[in-house]
Records
---
Amino acid sequence: MKNITFLIIFTCFIISLNAQSVIGAWESSSTSTSGEKLKSVLIIADGYQVLTTYNAVTGEFINTNGGTWSLDGNVMTEKVEFHTDNPEMIGSQFSFKVQITDNEIRIVDQEKIFKRIDDGNPGKLQGAWLMSGRIRDGNTQLRDTNRPRKTMKILSGTRFQWIAYNTETKEFKGTGGGTYTTINGEYIENIEFFSRDNSKSGLSLKFDFKLIEGNWHHMGLSSKGSPIHEIWSVRN
């Protein structure tokens, strides 16, 4: 009996260790049929992931998909919450084999390789967050994070991406991402792609941020120059 209990605990530990090893950001390069260089960035946070492809030179957005994930040994299982190329896949679940090392994820059946960008560090805001409210004119307007219409932001140690979508209607509203830093209460986004406006690629936006009772308060000017005070809550 003791041996069986030890085996169960050890197996759970190995699964947890494998899952932890994929946390962070990963990158893969490819070339389009017209010869353009493409970049695919995979951000994996605890329980949630997003994969996005865009033009490595111009920042033109190509596609994105993501949702929840789990890892059991060398089998990764994903449940799709958004998918710009195949919205009919939203709500479906699929599994595939992976080979994971410290610096590489190889998707076996697709012969696709992702190289590690970071391991979730330094990542003061690392994780998956949902827009849960705004403060306007001193008034707090809360948002139900359980509703189908979601705005999620996923951050690794150095990469960020926000995605707006609806799991019920399968609508994709928009996304943007790139690199970020958090220094002395200042959060800086360096945009590498923006699905609604390619001209935003290359912009750097500075915000103030505070962590208040576990919530991320995001304050400054939007990409359109409008003042914002957003509240983001950790996604469980």
---
Amino acid sequence: MKIKWLALSAITLVLSSGAVMAKEWKEIRFGVNPAYPPFESTAPDGSLQGFDIDLGNAICAELKVKCTWVTNDFDGLIPSLKARKIDAVLSSMTVTEPRKKQIDFSDRLFSGPTSIVTRKGSGLEPTAESLKGKAIGFQQGTIQEAYAKAKLAPGGVQLKAYQNQDQVYADLVSGRLDASIQDMLEAELSFLKSPQGADFQSSKGISDPMVPSDIAIGLRKGDEELKALINKAIAAMHANGTYQEIQRKHFGELDLYNN
């Protein structure tokens, strides 16, 4: 009888464990690399600003939870997520098959194609043939790094990795690089509109499965409750106009979601 009672108690515990283990989310810790304007950057007063930052804060407002931002190098965001130092990655992260093997993703936030930036009049195109013998820079941990290593390096293109995008542009302007490869919108809406980018231009978007364009929020595998909450908030922001308002604030009439 004692054995039966223990077995029954174990079954009761298992059946009730779902309610015990369910987490009441009061705070979401978003990991971000604030070196990618206009999506995420640091303001002069030290606060974070940008399209992704506003989206994250709006998601937290929709869910009525505290929004905490944790800064890190881009290539350290997924390790931080897996180590539970953050709850989600909101840093213009592209959804790729290799990343999906490590983490989950929310519904799509927007689209961001990849391009190369070169000096005007250089005649350089985003192909290994055109860039052969030239030096191209990229931010570590990005899909652009993976693409450059797989598609450009075998064709004789010299590759150089950097911790952040600002360092890439600094070497591009100084002449230590012949080209940079990055998100096309980031280049066009930030660097190319700045004084230092006046003599440079962006190529058209690169069409290749290695550089997809869907951007979403990175989540730990198994965090289904948080994923459902964030997806619910994203849907609500589209329905009530919050998403469109944030988009207009940063990009005017440019439609990042349907481009």
---
Amino acid sequence: MSDTLPLVQRAREAALKAYAPYSRFSVGCAIESVDGGIVTGANMENACYRLGVCGEIAALTAAQAAFGLNKVARIAVAGGHVADGALAGAAVVTSCGGCRQSILEAAQLAGIDVEVISSNGDGTETRVDRISALIPHGFGPANLKDAG
């Protein structure tokens, strides 16, 4: 699982399926399981704006259905604008705070410090972080051990 490019490519392809008529900013996400299975998702906007869904949440939902959140190993995110049928953009896209929280939930269920690969739209630049670095001191299922 050391090569990030195929997973980033899948995230870039997923972004082409986004429904982003308002922001015109397409985000795709690809999630790899500990067993090597891959699912994808893309953002879906809504005229009501706040009812939109991030690409990461769409992919996490697909992951839960396909293999379970407890088997998430790596996540790749890419975003930008669609030009001539391809995803483009120079800035590396990182997950929003809400998506980081959802990734943390999966990471704690899996018992893995999930690798998050962030890419620009062009696919020419990436950064790799662990979820623990993206949401330090996060609150998730592990914090509920003392709940009654």
---
Amino acid sequence: MSLANVFAIAGSGMSAQNTRLNTVASNIANAETVSSSLDQTYRARHPVFSTVFEGQSGGTAGTSGDSGSLFNDQDAAGSGVQVNGIVEDQSNLEARYEPKNPAANKDGYVYYPNVNVVEEMADMISASRSFQTNAEMMNTAKTMMQKVLTLGQ
């Protein structure tokens, strides 16, 4: 692995953490929205990541969790991360009896999303720190490359 690969790996990590931050922001923004039916209630969303291994071209072969892959060796070098998708949390929604709420159904219940704001805030801090770590890795690699250029002087 060359030093130049660090930029691609850290860049893919920054992109993945950006997706994670956007998902957290969406969850927090919809944490208190109500609905009169289970079908229309917002459900928390979470991104799914996987490792991209060195030598992998496009596709999803070689990602972590792929049991039939040629790159399933534990010694295979990772060359980044990819977002496989965003999934909805299938945990139970919260039903509250609020007959005076304009969004209440005929029985007087409204449904609140399955978003735990405390967990989302912790996830936001974690994603932010991971983003910062990847940015520091890029800065360190840049500094190392600059030092290599000054060796011949």
